From TrEMBL:
Family statement: Belongs to the Tom22 family.
A GO biological process held by the record: intracellular protein transport
Gene Ontology cellular-component annotations: mitochondrial outer membrane
Membrane topology term: Single-pass membrane protein
Protein name (database record): Mitochondrial import receptor subunit TOM9-2
Region of interest (Disordered), ranges: 1-28
Entry keyword annotation includes Protein transport: yes
Positions of transmembrane segments: 64-81
């Protein structure tokens, strides 16, 4: 083995430079000038800010939905069940009254 200890893997040979007519130099200059552009930095910062705001909005919307859902289950669902039960009881009383021959009761008590 060689004196350098490496853990597995194959090393790839370095690419030969493709400097036909200086194209690599132009591309590298353009990419470095674009990557150092203040417009690019402002765009990245705006995208980061938008992502942060969207994340916070989704988080707070989720919390609000949880609160609304649990409140509905605790307060409104029992009320709906009780109103349905009362309506069924009223219908049963009306059926019994009609079977006994009593005059129908008005809907308003």
């Amino acid at each position: 083995m060689s004196s350098q200890s490496r853990k597995g893997g194959v090393t790839l040979p370095e690419r030969p430079s493709r400097s036909k007519d200086g194209q690599d130099g132009i591309i590298s200059r353009i990419s470095s000038s674009v990557s150092q552009s203040p417009i690019l930095h402002r765009g990245k910062r705006a995208a980061d800010d938008a992502a942060y705001v969207a994340k916070r909005l989704l988080k707070s919307t989720g919390k609000a939905a949880w609160i609304a859902g649990t409140t509905f289950l605790i307060l409104v669902v029992p009320l709906i069940i009780e109103m349905d039960r009362e309506q069924q009881l009223n219908e049963l009383e009306m059926q019994q009254a009609s079977l006994l021959g009593a005059p129908p009761m008005s809907a308003h008590k």
